[in-house]
Amino acid sequence: MKYYIGIDIGGMSIKAGIVDEDGNIISKSTCVTRVLDGKEAIALDMYNLCKEVTAIANLEQKDILGVGIGCPGTVNSQKGVITFAANLNFKKVNIVKEFNKHWNVKTVVNNDANCAALGETKFGSGKEYSSSLFVTLGTGVGTGFIIDNKIFEGENGEGAEGGHVCIRMDGEKCSCGQKGCWEAYASATALIKQTKKAMQKHPESLMNEIATRKGEVNGTVAFEAYKAGDKVAEKVVKKYAEYVATGLVVFINVFRPQVVMIGGGVSNAGEYFIEMIRKQVKKKVFAGKINRIPNVVKANLGNDAGIVGAAAPVMD
Amino acid sequence: MKYYIGIDIGGMSIKAGIVDEDGNIISKSTCVTRVLDGKEAIALDMYNLCKEVTAIANLEQKDILGVGIGCPGTVNSQKGVITFAANLNFKKVNIVKEFNKHWNVKTVVNNDANCAALGETKFGSGKEYSSSLFVTLGTGVGTGFIIDNKIFEGENGEGAEGGHVCIRMDGEKCSCGQKGCWEAYASATALIKQTKKAMQKHPESLMNEIATRKGEVNGTVAFEAYKAGDKVAEKVVKKYAEYVATGLVVFINVFRPQVVMIGGGVSNAGEYFIEMIRKQVKKKVFAGKINRIPNVVKANLGNDAGIVGAAAPVMD
After folding, report:
1. Which of A135, A295, B153, B249 counts the most CB atoms within 10 A of its CB?
2. Which pairing describes strands B132-137 and B141-147: parallel, antiparallel, or unpaired?
3. Has residue A189 got a pLDDT over 90?
């Protein structure tokens, strides 16, 4: 069996784990991200985590064939440089070089959404496919494109910013400063806004009762009310599925992936929601009567996606 | 010097020419496309054109290193198959096989917009670059994506349909049956519609006078009136530039090409129009303050783009 280490650097914590060639996590550990202490501190903590997970797995450093790093922001994977990552306060940081000062092992770094996309394609819901689109519907909308089992990151790793394609000119304001971005319609944050708006307009909707019980309006309110038969919630959920599909179709028309994988909190709503997206995709895709329409499925790596995804690119 | 043949098959005519390794056309000829007579007739006509242009150039068949075919529709270049081309009445036609019955030479086929994109990148306005986006603003909106000097056509050649990404959900009807496609806002056809609408609303606009003089409303009316200082025309032209830029930015955010090349009739409006698009792109691109913004330029191969583009892929 071949072993690798995946390191998932987030703004709050660093997670690391030994991953075998079949995508199983053998051991894992975590520590807080010392953002204020800078790249040297973070590289050292990464190395210490590597030693720890190797020991837990009863392995030695020489057994590890490579280390893969996943992190947010813009990453130039060919140069090993994190061009910009606001959460980490990183600007043009050669994280591979920093890490290799501690341990001279084959090391690669990639954007975390791209890592998750490759992990899902190699070991998760996309494992029967070689080209895929992975989308996370969370606070924002993250996208990862896999072509021929490889991450597509755009020139200098500056592309693949799928959340910020415009699906409605002059539309909703987006956190990026533009108007009408897909993220402003298809993120969980957007769904909550859409839910609140419908609740205000329809005080009789079950969504109000559910939100009061929960003590907040979150991404599950509309789905719960829909399942209980609430007509207003049905409208919210169906429109939201249409928003999600509209963005997906942009990328299907351009990339024609074999499969589309939906991740993030919202994807847990249930198979009926995935089916709604599927139907809308079928309706909206270009030349859908002639060309193959990719299937839409729920991503299934869940919490492991970060570590497995980070390790995936170094396995090639 | 190395020689190739480029064959540009259109719904009306087939154009062929000898192209040298520097992208110069040495000789050319043309014939009508016998759509009703089917693939055998078209393949034979292609072969006869090849013999003709070879003779005109004082070359022999053995001097030709390869034949490149460009045609409209969905093309699976790896298999040499035109999957679907409405203009040619072709469905799953292996045009390479048909052609090779007459002449067993290295032959490739690609979608014509993709060919034009590669031709422009190798020999035209993009020749200093290796990754590019080529857009033609004509009756429709065609797109071609070049990554690392290669055509990106999506899985099975079914992708790269940039004209049909949605930029305004629930917006203008598109010829493809969907609503809000980029093509429905950024094609010359769309510009004419926008011009007509503004003319009706503003009978005092100079555009009315210009259109009367021309005997029709075409894609140049708004530009002419704008240059003459007409305020209504200025609004039309500026909004149209914004429509063009909105679609471009979708692809810039995903691909981050080094250069964007604008072709088609509308691109002849003048440098001031290209500059308008450039400004809007700058304004709309994601993380434009951190990432490099590709330059926007006018395509410059003009009438030669079809033949040179068709030959370009066979030169590799």
Report:
1. A135
2. antiparallel
3. yes
